Amino acid sequence: MGLQPKIQRTNKGFLLKSCQRCNSSFSEEGFAPTKSLFYPDGVIPVCNDCVDRLIETRTEGGDWKMVDKLC
Asked: So where are the chain's domains?
C-alpha cells in the first residue's frame, strides 16, 4: 500500500470553457480529460477538434510523434 497523491480539482463540472487555440466554447466533453496538476479543472486547455486538426495537418495520416509532443 503505497502513498497515493491527493489531487484536489477546482471548477469541476463547468458549463462552458473556451479553447485556448481557437477561442470556441465547449462543454466538458469537448476537451480531453487529464489528471495533471497543471490543469486543476481536469481537462486540457485545447479542444478535441483542435487536437484532431493538429495531428492531421502536421502529419500525413496522423503521426504518433505529434501525439507524444501534445502529451
From this structure: 17-70
Q: How far apart are CA 45 and CA 47, in angstroms?
A: 7
pLDDT band at residue 63, thresholds of 50, 70 and 90?
A: low
For residue 21, the Cα-to-chain-centroid distance in whole angstroms is 11
Q: Are 53 and 70 in contact (CB under 8 A)?
A: no
Q: How many CB atoms lie within 10 A of CB 47?
A: 23
Give pLDDT tens digits for 36-57: 889 888 899 999 999 888 877 6
Q: Would you tell me how many other CB atoms lie within 10 Å of the CB of residue 42?
A: 18
Predicted TM-score (pTM) of the model is 0.66
Cell numbers standing for residue 35: 489528471
